[in-house]
Design goal:
The protein is α/β, with parallel strands linked by helices. It is about 35% helix and about 20% strand. It folds into two domains: about 90 residues, 60s Ribosomal Protein L30, Chain: A, CATH 3.30.1330.30; about 160 residues, 3-Layer(aba) Sandwich (Alpha/beta knot). Strand 6, helix 6 and strand 7 form a beta-alpha-beta unit. Keywords: Methyltransferase, Transferase.
Length: about 270
């Protein structure tokens, strides 16, 4: 039998965050196997270090088949989440359904539209992701791409901050952003990285072309491996004493430069 519980305890134990809204938790090896096979989207999966046994290896093979990432944690952390028999495995069910970028791009072209994709490289704050998703949905972005590791969870806080936009815009969770960028380039999209490591402003690229915009994480920005293969590097002009904008604000600025160009607005400064 598949057991679903709220995961406020997981938030408090693993992330040390205050109680807010609720998501669903599945624990027990067989229950997690059943959840995966029934099509549940796994947001996070915590596995006890050193776990073994025939049933565990069945789960491990299933994770490989479905390309689901997991985290190895001490049993003490799992025990703080639930006193029930978790068998060394706890899964968090995602509140949204994830898509594959390989499916999104052909659909956009088939509709006769020019793709505008947003890639979030290591954005870890759930409220930033939610605010970005709200702006992206308003701006007509066709999909948001996030990495399977090193990104904020899509949880009730993220959904709330997005004002429900995450229910209306496809989110693609990819194991390798570098490979995703290469796929988009081979599909005819230009890659525009928003970064301070350039002298060019965000007004320089032609966003009327098929485009994927890459926004970096709060601390490290866009990864160097993506910067090296990008078609354009672009920065937001800054005139104050503070050297950078919040990533959600920066995303809004560059997205609406893209919209300005698409609508045939006046020349940029």
């Amino acid at each position: 039998m598949l057991i679903l519980l709220t995961y406020t305890a997981v938030e408090m134990s693993f992330r040390n965050e205050p109680k807010r809204e609720y998501n669903q938790m599945v624990f027990g090896i067989r229950a997690v196997i059943e959840a995966i096979r029934s099509g549940k989207e796994i947001e996070s999966l915590f596995i006890q270090r050193g776990l073994g046994g025939e049933l565990f290896y069945e789960l491990k093979n299933l994770l490989n088949e479905y390309k689901i990432e997991s985290q190895q944690v001490p049993v003490e952390k799992l025990n703080r989440v639930t006193t029930k028999n978790h068998q060394g495995v706890i899964a968090i069910i995602s509140p949204i359904t994830y898509y594959k970028i390989e499916d999104i791009i052909p659909m956009v072209f088939e509709k006769g539209e020019v793709p505008l994709i947003l890639i979030l490289d290591g954005v870890t704050d759930v409220r930033n992701v939610g605010a970005i998703a709200r702006t992206a949905e308003c701006a007509g972005v066709h999909a948001i791409v996030v990495p399977a590791k090193g990104s904020a969870q899509i949880n009730p806080d993220t959904i709330k901050t997005s004002a429900g936009a995450l229910y209306n815009i496809p989110v693609c969770r990819e194991s390798s952003l570098l490979q995703t960028v290469k796929f988009l380039q081979s599909s005819g999209l230009q890659i525009v990285c928003c970064t301070e490591k350039t002298t060019d402003f965000i007004y320089a690229p032609d966003y009327t072309l098929p485009t994927a915009i890459v926004m970096g994480g709060e601390d490290d920005g866009v990864s160097n491996e993506i910067i090296r293969i990008a078609d354009h590097l672009a920065k937001i002009p800054m005139y104050g004493e503070i050297e950078s904008l919040n990533v959600s604000v920066s995303t809004g600025v560059i997205l609406y430069e893209a919209i300005r160009q698409k609508r045939g607005g006046p020349p940029a400064p």
